[in-house]
Amino acid sequence: MADFLDSEAEESDEENALDPHERRKLKSLKRMADSSEEEDEDDADEVADLIDDNPIEDEVSDGEDSDGSSVSKKRKKHDDDDLDDRLEDDDYDLIEENLGVKVERGKRFKRLRRIQDEESDGEEHVDEGLAREAIAEQLFDEDDENMERRSERSIVEPDIFEEEEESDSDADDFIVDDEGRPIAEKKKKRKPIFTDASLQEGQDIFGVDFDYDDFSKYEEDEYEDESDGEDFDDDIADNDREKLKKKLLRKKVTKKTIFDIYEPSELKRGHFTDLDNEIRKADLPERMQLRNVPVTSVPEGSTELDDEAEWIYKQAFCKPTVSQQDKNLDSRDRYKKPSSAVEKIKQALDFIRNQQLEVPFITFYRKEYVKPELSCEDLWKIYYFDEKWCQLLNRKNKLRLLLESMKNYQLNALKNIKDSRLSDDIRLIKDEDFERLADVQTVEELKDVHMHFLLYYSHDIPRMQEDRKRREKEQKKIAREEKRRQYLENGEEVQDLSANETDSDDNEDQLKHSNDSGPYAMCRKAGLCGFAKKFGLLPEQYAENLRDNYQRHEINQEVISPSEIAKQYLCPKFMTTEEVLQATKFVVARQLSREPLLRKSVREAFFERAKMTVKPTKKGMKEIDENHPCYTIKYLANKPVRDLLCEQFLKLVMAEEDKLLEISISEQIEGNISNSYIDEAKQLYQRDEFSKYVQEWNILRCECVELALKKMVIPDLRKELKNLLLTESKQFVLKACCLKLSNWLKVAPFRPEFSTESTYDDWNHTKGIRVMGLAYTPDYSQAAFCSVITVEGDVSDYIRLPNILKRKNAYRAEEKIQKMSDLANLKEFIRNKKPHVLAIGGESREAQMIQSDIQEIIKELVEEDQFPPIAVEIIDNELAKIYANSKKGVADFKDYPLLLKQAISLARKMQDPLVEFSQLCCADEEILCLRYHSLQEQISKEELLEHLYIEFINRTNEVGLDINFAIQNSESLNLVQFICGLGPRKGQALIKILKQTNQRLENRTQLVTLCHLGPKVFINCSGFIKIDTSSLGDSTEAYVEVLDGSRIHPETYEWARKMAIDAMEYDDEETNPAGALEEILESPERLKDLDLDAFAVELERQGFGNKSITLYDIRTELHSLYKDLRVAYRSPNAEELFDMLTKETPETFYVGKMILGTVIGISHRKPQGEQLDQANPGRNEESGHWSCPFCLKDDFPELSEVWNHFDAGACPGQATGVKIRLDNGLSGFIHIKNLSDKHVKNPEDRVQNGQAIHVRIIKIDVDRFSVDCSSKSSDLMDKNHEWRQRRDQFYDYEAEEKDNRKENEKNHIKTKQQYVKRIIIHPSFHNKSYAEVVKIMENMDQGEVIVRPSSKGSDHLTVTWKVTTDIYQHIDVREEGKENAYSLGQSLWIGNEEFEDLDEIIARHVNPMAACARELLNYKYYRNAGGGLKDNMEEILREEKKKDSKKIHYFFSATKNYPGKFLLSYLPKTKFRHEYVTVVSDGFRFRGQIFESLHLLLKWFKDHYCDPIVNTPTSTSNLQSNNQFSTPHLNTDSRSISQAIALNTPHYSNTPGFQGYVNTPYTPSGQTPFMTPYNTPHLSDTPRYTHSTPSPSSSTSNQNFCRSTNIKQSKESVSCHEVIPSYEIAHKKNKGYSNSNESREWQMASDSWAKRKPVNNLMPHISRPNINNYANNRNNNFEKEYGYASTHYTDEFFRSKDSQRTPKSFRSTPRTNTSPHSMNLGDATPLYDEN
Fold first, then answer.
1. Which of 1419, 1435, 1430 is nearest to 1455 (CA)?
2. Taking residues 825-849, what's their average pLDDT?
3. Alpha carbon distance 1542, 1662 (integer Å)
4. Residues with Cβ within 8 Å of residue 234, at least 6 apart in sequence
5. Which residues pair with 1222 in a beta bridge?
6. Using DSSP, how many helices (H) and how many strands (E) does the chain show?
7. In terms of C-beta density within 10 A (0-12 exposed, 13-18 middle, 19 or more buried), how is residue 1381 classed?
């Protein structure tokens, strides 16, 4: 309580200084504090506890309520716990009524005491009185700026309060609680507008609810304060002032700061941050402050400007680019600057850096110091190179300090070294290192120096820092001792001076250093740096040799071999001499590669001589067509990078990013006198001796050079070169964008050609012009809009024209009426509004029609109403469309339709293009939406925007800006930011001040007095802000300076007045500068008599400098104030109009381009009189009809009708070509001779209306908006590249041809197999290819099945089952009864056997075969012979024969070449025999017989193995040379094949890989599976094969022959009671199948067989179909389907007596396993009946 009394006493003095109202507020606050100390159990306390729901522990620890009892605190806690249960809606209403605060119901109210919590959080308790005193003192003593910063730092999310209702009661009225105590203070505290605790306390103390938003939004808004102060002090008494202030402030109570309302990003966007505030206040041009490296002054006496000027001259104006950048661009820097430009550059730098003058100011007012060498663009280049110089200089200084620190560390370290000999790995820093750093000219060179430093000294940096830290500690310790001694001498108390130093020490200890690791560090630690020094040259010496290209330094040769020296450096890490040599080579190479001079020399050579190679990827080969920008450069071989043009490399990089191209820069560099720069570099590191040791050293040195250049230097330089080429390409695009915008902005406002003297005042255009804009869209359903803009730029009126696009000569009368109605309305609109010019948006070719319609209206008005000849212009509407869709366009004309906003923009563009383009220069950066270049998206938005704004800056300052007009007309406000010295922030502040004060800028002096611009900003901007002095008139009492309306700068006003006085020849007594200026403006021709050169000399003598050009500019300006220097508007020429209306560019529409067109008609040439007289109709001899010689109509029965055809005019004439319509709306024409390579008489034979055809442009007529085209195949293919874009000089045609050939081969292979995806729901079905199925089945069990689509078409399937590992059999399934191409057929056929569904095929056909195969695989005599290779089986048999020669050994092996067959190999005596056993659904087939089990098969085999086998003749043909015997492919229909001739079943011709020969085994590839055929016909002319060539098809066909239960095709069957050989299938009626070239060996074999075998051998239970029917059907099918009769066999097998046999007698030549149709079992298969 004592503290409180003390604080009260201290406050009493402060109260005297307060006014009565504030004193009452303070007393009220004190009563509140007193009452809060006397807490009782009342409702007010409950309410207080209700609002403050902080934990009770916090309150107990708080000293604020220390005098309260603990019982009451416990009760409060209990009350808080039951709060939610006690409160009802009425309670809430009562609380809200008393507190004036909207509380949240049903929740804890934690936010209502935020202010109090913020005061107490994290702080010790402070007495309230002391706190208030401190806050008050802080509020009074601190300046506004510090307070503002503190409040901004403490901003948090604000609470939301209801607005307090206004009350008419006195200021002392307040609400009391139930005990009568005032709670007004609480009420006010609960409605804070400040989140900062101290400011809120100030509000509570003084009762003033002020908000900094009312006084300053980050700037001192003193003008409003002054005006308010004057009103209160002069006009209002104290009491009234208090009431008014209360009302005013009460209205502002609920206002929030911008930080409460807006997001930080929005504040930054609107320039309301702290940084923006500082920029606004600083007396420095805004753009100089915002530069990445702000503009800084040069110290006096420094030579930095000389060095910088020389550097900029070399880097910006002398150094050529690597690629050719200025070939196609009208560059203003085309020519190299003379050496005299160095001094001009220095002067420009002095203006920029020391005088803070912006480029436009220097351009206009310091011409004498930069002209003629430097243009405005050159000054901007100097401005940006100054930034690069400052960056480079800053980095150089930092590196120099690092070098100095390391040098000092080395000197200190040398003092401690007792031994005079230094370690080999120590390299002392010399003066040459500092000189090298000083000579650095580029960032790349600086990086080289830095990397060189790190190579030698990075491991010493930690020790250097420790040493520096130790020395600093020692110095601090000495300083502390000195201070301590002084304290003791003065008798003062000794303070602890070391406390403040611990933090910094700790922070330094936390710095991390790079680890001393890596290959080079390992070698250095092993001491190999000493070995590296013995290579004869230091890296610096070799670099000088390389730079000078001769051996400037001789090599110091060692006398012993490298191996001997290497032995001295053996260590645990390098234990052999070879390892030591390899490591040393690495050390030497690393040192060479880090040498800055070497890198600089190699960089120069590499950048000059580098070559690049470009190849397309697979994706690029498909996507880069002739319309792609990289088409001409997609194949490049060794193209020098210096030959790259413009943005070529950028296009290549874009294609590379899209995975279309691969760019590689070769590491090979051409030498000065040889083909290899590296070989020349090696020669400079060799000693010219021939001793053995010297040669060994030379080899090592060469290897070091090669390693350094190829592996270390050139890879880095390759990256540098790519980045440099990319930067240059982007700079080209950037310049092109700026040039295009500059061409748009340099156009002056439209000026009518007619004179205003002879016309009425309505047509006077000295103050400006009225413009009518018309915007439309090609959509006829949308109405066009026409708008009129006043001289001031406001919308006067508009009209809607819904039918303006319809034609006057429309077919429908209704459309004609609608069109004429719109034209009449438009005519009346023009008559009333009297525009000086009409602007039509160039959306499409309809603009020309509208233009002609309006021109007719103007002619009528000229005749009727004496209108002047108003111009009707078509202008580009790109800007209008973007503005109409922009945020500013929407805000300016919210309720206007889109086309009307376009019309307004078109009209304003004619008034002033600069102003209209500036509408897009806002925070939304919509100026980037304009199309400047096709590659502008590759430039960063910030960089592009910055350079586009430079064009606005140049043009705005050239034109000048009337600031008063800009405030009155918001269209020009965006130009204020481009005034020299200003910017978005300073311009915004200038406009705000003028609007708030509601004053006009009457003279340029008010920029300082009223707008508070600093001297530097004023000097920059004053000359470009013009003031219309004529409009001021008598409205002001101030002196009107006429020169304020001119380009003359205020600093030269005196000279202008002097020139006026001298020109008017006034006497000294009559001197009146103002009058002289007014007179000279009326008669400026009198200025010609002045000797301005003498005046300039006098000014220079007086110390004003060279002002010769300035004086002439003043004279020019006095002739015409602010004359518009822009280029006068001109109508677009034919080519510009063509591009505008077609929306094409020369890059997108050119001669030779192939495009798509639609045929719209045939053009004819009507015959003239003489042609009709000489006409000679022709007659068709076959039909007897006559034909017209012109239109070629040929249905005239009589000759007279032809003449009637002529006389009636019905003949359209001879066809001359085809009319087409292109996609861009242009009309095209194909002359009849260009329609086809062949002669075409009637084009209707080739094309028809509506047909889309590809054509190539051969001529463009921009005047007629038409093109001539060609559709010849030769022109479209353009093999000779006559029409397509000319390919690059280094185009790699060989690589392209090679890739195309490979691609064609791949496509050819790929097209052989096409699988149609099927929609079949079955667990075994997969829409997979052969390769995919094989991959899936690798992990499946034996016998598993997969059904997949077939390559034969949509009516076939393939069933693949796994025989064993890596062996899969493929079965063809034919479908019938299909609903569509993707569904499964109702019946499925394998050969001639029908199945109902896939399950039946698997269960009844595949599973039995798999079971038989499994039985063979598990048999004891089964061997894996590598897929059934006979050589492997013979080797196995040979080994078994050696073991037991008495037995006849036999083994089985699955064959990979013939899936489903097993090779049975055995050795009866000395000759190996090989036969095949086929697994079928009925069991095993062997020698034509079916065995139900393996046991029966083996039993029969053992009984008949020794049956004689006739040696079959062999063929000399190679098995692999299949093409030698290829026959035409046949697509035979398996449905025409009868199962009756199963023994004669050959290959199925559609099986993948089938080449037309029957018995050649097919080896499946990765793409084409082998298909097991069933009962498929073959061609007859089939060569014979060796015994080792079995065919899988015939064995499979035998399966069907031996069945009797599954034959469904033939209803007739006969019983065979004799042996049925294979050639018994001979046709009875067709005794064909003859082959005159059949070998007689087959006849001998069959005769031998017939003699040995009885004819009456029976084969029971086998029924056979009707052979004759099959033979006839097959022949017929072959003839019908393939256009030729099937080949028949005629040989001695078919005896003449066969024709006399009855159908029941099936005697014929026996089937031999090696016959042409059934030679399937191999060399050991006997030639006898298989039964």
1. 1430
2. 91
3. 12
4. none
5. 1157
6. 68, 30
7. exposed
Identify the CA nearest to 451 among candidates 623, 592, 331. 592
- How far is residue 747's CA from residue 1129's CA, in Å, rounded to a whole number? 6
CB 1579 within 8 A of CB 1556: yes
Nearest to 1090 by CA among 1108, 1106, 1105: 1108
Q: Is 941 helix (H, G, I), strand (E, B) or coil?
A: helix
* Higher pLDDT pick, 1392 / 508: 1392
Tens digit of each residue's pLDDT (9 = 90 or more) over 1684-1727: 333 333 333 333 333 333 333 333 333 333 333 333 333 333 33
**In the prediction, which pLDDT does 940 show?**
92
Count CB neighbours of 770 within 10 A: 19
Check whether 1107 has a pLDDT greater than 50: yes
Question: Pick from 369, 378, 374, 364: which is nearest to 351 by CA?
Answer: 369
Strand partners, 616: 661
Q: What is the pLDDT of residue 105?
A: 59
Q: How far apart are CA 1331 and CA 1352, in angstroms?
A: 16
Residue type at 402?
A: L
Q: What sign does the dihedral 119-123-125-130 (CA atoms) show?
A: negative
Cβ–Cβ contacts within 10 Å for residue 993, how many? 18
Cα(1485)–Cα(1497) distance, integer angstroms = 8
Whole-number pLDDT of residue 559: 85
Report whether 1626 contacts 1693 (CB < 8 A): yes
- CA dihedral sign, ordered 237, 238, 243, 249: positive
H or E segment to which residue 828 belongs: helix 813-833
Nearest CA to 1423 out of 1458, 1462, 1461, 1469 is that of 1462
Predicted model pTM: 0.68
pLDDT of residue 1134 exceeding 80: yes
Contact 1135, 1262 (CB under 8 A): yes
Q: How far apart are CA 1492 and CA 1483, in angstroms?
A: 5
Token output for 1194: 């040929």
Give the pLDDT confidence score for residue 419 in this predicted structure. Answer: 61
Q: Can you say how many angstroms the Cα of residue 410 is from the centroid of all Cα atoms in its chain? A: 51
CB contact at 8 A, 1317 and 1327: yes
List, in order, residues 6 or more apart from 1191 with CB less than 8 Å away: 1164, 1211, 1212, 1213, 1214, 1215
Taking the C-alpha atoms of residue 1683 and residue 1678, their distance in angstroms, rounded to an integer, is 7
Of residues 730, 726, 735, 723, the one with CA closest to residue 381: 735
- For 964, the token pair is 């008063």
CA–chain centroid gap for 610, Å, is 27
DSSP β-bridge partners for residue 1393:
1390
The DSSP bridge partners found for residue 1230 are: 1218, 1269
User: Nearest Cα to 658, choosing from 684, 606, 697, 622?
Assistant: 622
**Alpha-carbon gap, residue 1003 to 1028, rounded angstroms:** 9
Eight-class DSSP state of 315 = I
Give CA separation, 414 vs 243, 407, 410, 443, in Å. Answer: 83, 10, 6, 33
How far is it, in rounded angstroms, from Cα 1479 to Cα 695?
A: 75
DSSP 168: -
Cis peptide before 1592 (omega within 30 of 0): no
Query: For residue 1064, what are the CA distances in angstroms to 93, 1067, 1119, 1121, 1563?
Result: 86, 9, 14, 18, 112
> Over the stretch 1302-1341, which tens digit does the pLDDT of each residue have?
988 888 777 665 677 888 999 999 988 888 899 999 999 9
| Amino acid in position 866 | Q
Count the Cβ atoms, other than its own, within 10 Å of residue 79. 15
The residues, ordered by sequence, that sit 6+ positions from 604 with a Cβ below 8 Å of its Cβ are none
CA distance linking residue 322 with residue 1095, whole number of Å: 48
Give the residue ranges of DSSP H helices in 632-676: 648-657
1258 and 1151 Cβ atoms separated by less than 8 Å: yes
Say how far apart CA 1268 and CA 1259 lie, in whole Å: 5
Q: Return the pLDDT at 339.
A: 86
